[in-house]
Amino acid sequence: MLTLEHVTKYYDQLKAVDDLSFEVKKGEIFGLLGVNGAGKTTTFRMIIGLLAKDNGTILLDGKPIDYNVTDKIGFLTEERSLLTKLTVKEQVIYYGVLKGMDEKNILNRLDYWLKRFHIEEYKNRKIKELSKGNQQKIQFITAIINDPELLILDEPFTGLDPINVEQFMEVIKELKEKNTIIIFSSHRMEHVELFCEKLVILVHGKSVLSGSLKEIKKSYQKKNIHIQADVDISKLKEIEGVIDVEKTAEDYIVKIKDQESISNVFNYIKKCQNVTEFRVEDPTLNEIFLEKVGVLYED
């Protein structure tokens, strides 16, 4: 288990991470979210020991993280961290050796992952000759080449098309099944919703929302109602509890302030013609994120 307790980090007078606490169990995928500059990357770097914390405790399986355990960690950074003049083979061997692996094991695992991502032909190509998407695949391979117990993924889908995103998702889910501790960060909230059981949202380095994704969405008062019917948008907007109405290519989305407002909308829809859908959904994580973070950044 990864545990952070009351972790704080300053850059001179700036408090980049403010009394942050959370834990991630084996086989869990945890979301660390926030806008740029919220403290995510600083937190990642403290976890793996690249930055010293000013206060607090960071433990992996009950022990401080030092050079005795860094071989068990994989880190995919948001920025490209590849040596572009090296070949794919040379690059992965370099990272694998740094993780204490022998070359034979590295090459066996490299061949497996190149085949898995359908890029076997790039093994002896220089990194700079690869597309951005294929460079991202190589960076991902370097992060998991040591079969890590703790894997940190900072914007892992950068530069990937939907097919390759799906490939990454499959691998991440497999690592979860192998009891890997996974911390995941992305600005794409739909990706976070697919993966993360628990999450923390940071604003100015401080946690403003945390817990299980299921409970966060359940406790959020606002709901969305999807309607297919002949409706009058102006009348929908006049209903008590309705915040807004959006017309999409397929239906109407009625945003309501709470659970009690559902019956108000339903009573109107009963009187409409050609009703084929009335479906209540929890808000998306993106909606919750925008409201929670946006308000705080406006203050």
Itemize the secondary structure elements and their pairings.
Blueprint: E1 2-11, E2 14-24, E3 29-33, H1 40-47, E4 55-60, E5 63-64, E6 73-76, H2 88-98, H3 103-116, H4 132-144, E7 150-154, H5 162-177, E8 181-185, H6 189-195, E9 198-203, E10 206-212, H7 213-219, E11 223-230, H8 233-238, E12 242-247, E13 252-256, H9 262-269, E14 273-281, H10 285-298
Parallel strand pairs: 3-8, 3-9, 6-7, 7-8
Antiparallel strand pairs: 1-2, 1-4, 4-5, 9-10, 11-13, 11-14, 12-13
Helix pairs in contact: 2-3, 2-4
Mind explaining what this structure looks like?
- There is one protein chain.
- The chain is 35% helix and 30% strand.
- It is of the alpha/beta class.
- It has two domains: 2-217, Rossmann fold, CATH 3.40.50.300; 221-281, Lrp/AsnC effector binding domain/regulation of amino acid metabolism (RAM) domain (Alpha-Beta Plaits, 2-Layer Sandwich).
- The strands form three sheets. A six-stranded mixed beta sheet has the order 6-7-8-3-9-10, sandwiched between helices. It has a four-stranded antiparallel beta sheet with strand order 2-1-4-5, with helices on one face.
- Helix 2 crosses helix 3 (103-116) and helix 2 (88-98) packs parallel to helix 4.
- The chain is globular.
Which structural traits does this protein have?
six-stranded mixed β-sheet; globular; 30% strand; single chain; 14 strands; 299 residues; 35% helix; disordered C terminus; four-stranded antiparallel β-sheet; Rossmann fold; alpha/beta; Alpha-Beta Plaits; 2 domains; 10 helices
